[in-house]
Amino acid sequence: MSTGCHLFHIQIMMVQIGSWSLSHTLIKPIRYQVFVIEQQIPETEEWDDGDLIATHALAFSKDLPVGTGRLIIDQEEPTHAKIGRMAVLESFRSRGIGRAILRKLIATGKEKGVQVLTLHAQVSAIPFYASEGFISKGAIFDEVNIPHQKMYLKI
C-alpha cells in the first residue's frame, strides 16, 4: 500500500557574477581541477591577465562552488565580448550548471551593451554551445593541444 508520499531530490543552484579580486579563491580550484588536472593543460597557460579584467560567473550547488566561466569585453570594440574558461566540476556535470553559467554570462553581456559574443569551443562542446544559439565560424584549430572551434552569437 502506497502512502502517497514522494521524496524529490532538489538541486539548489545559483550563479553569481563578480570580479576576480572577490572570487578568485573560489574559481581557481575549479579551473585547476578541470583544466590542469583533467585536461592536462599546462598551468602556465591557464592563468592570464584576462582574469583581472573579466566579469566572472561562479555557480554554487548549495554552498559549494562547482562551476565557473568568464566574460571579457573587448576594450577597443565594447559591443563585442568573449566568453571563456567555462568549467564545471566532473561530479556536477549534466545537471544544467554549465548552461546556467553560459546564460548568466550572455545576460551579463547584454546588460553591458554587448551585441556579439564569441568563444573558442572545445570540439566536444560544440553541440552544447550550438544549442544556445552559437554559430560555428572558420576552421577547427588547436589551442593548448585541444581541437577548438570559434563560435559566435549575436544578442
Summarize the structure.
The chain is of the alpha+beta class and 155 residues long. The chain is built from five helices and seven strands, in the order E-H-H-H-E-E-E-H-E-H-E-E.
Can you give keywords for this protein?
155 residues, alpha+beta, seven-stranded mixed sheet, 5 helices, 7 strands, globular
Explain what you see.
This protein is an alpha+beta fold. The chain contains five helices and seven strands. A seven-stranded mixed β-sheet has the order 1-2-3-4-5-7-6, sandwiched between helices. A hairpin with a 6-residue loop joins strand 3 and strand 4. The radius of gyration is 17 Å and the shape is globular. It starts with 12 loop residues before the first strand and ends with a strand. The model has no long low-confidence stretch (mean pLDDT 93).
